[in-house]
Amino acid sequence: MERRKFMGAAGSLLAASPVQAQKELEAGGTGSTSYTVPVTVERKQSGKPHHGKVLAAIQPHCDDIPIFAGGTILKLLDEGYTGVLITMSNDSMAGTGSSIGDIVLKNERDTKEVARRLGLTEAYFLNYPNHNMDGWPLLEMRARLVFLFRLLKVDTVLVYDPGALYERNPDHAVTAKAVESACWMASSEWDYPEHFKAGLTPHGPKEKYYFARGPQLVNRVVDIGTYIDQKVWVNMANVTQGPAGSQGAVLRRALAEKGRKLPLLGDSDETANRQYTKTFALARDRTRGQAHGLEYAEFFHHIPPDESDVEQYVAKHSVPL
Ligand SMILES: [Zn+2]
Question: What's this model's pTM, rounded to 2 decimal places?
């Protein structure tokens, strides 16, 4: 048989087969194994569809969440979520300051301002050693996260992708790993049963938005066009470290000393910082949006709540006795 005809016949056979045509379910540790993932564009929803739900934005350092997930958090909160910010490291190794202690304090203040500008109700600091989190027991991080997930009844997490490639910062990789395992164990009635004596109940996040700095499986593109100016303002809160802060004002001053200026940066430090952040620090959001016909977007590997074939079957086929 001619190859093209054979492939055509095989293709129609596959399409007709109920086994082959069925989509593999997304379900925790036994979910789909495919590296080919369909991409969903998540757009702004009207009303408050997420009313009553709680999210935790978890980051090793104070600029991670604002850069990679700030727009999505603003969107989810606008749609009814409440949420908290959890920062894993003490942020002692990055930024400008007179000493390590000074940098820690400045980053701590910036982080609280980031949480406030995002609309998150609280900022938790777990205080692990910056750049050295891989020397600390993962088990302890997991245990503390399990406690927080149960205490705050977290439904959804946003964090670095534990499956991302080429991540050179150990704090990013360790945080991702700790969160991934804590989400699952927090739901268990057997892990840390002393929590239940203190009044907590098993409760773990069922939905995840994983972002990355290297290659990852991207199956969720979140349209953040409506929130880009707010995201810019959030990123401007990180003045001690990060790519935004007051970089615009710094560039404007450096140019002025050479007798030059960029019209883009306007005539004030505030305008310079906003324009610099939107144009340069968050340029990736524009590039990512344009790839999907949007103005600005954030990319994630999104893991939905577990799908159950039994529940789906029962809902469709159960009949009265
Ligand atoms: Zn970081």
Answer: 0.89
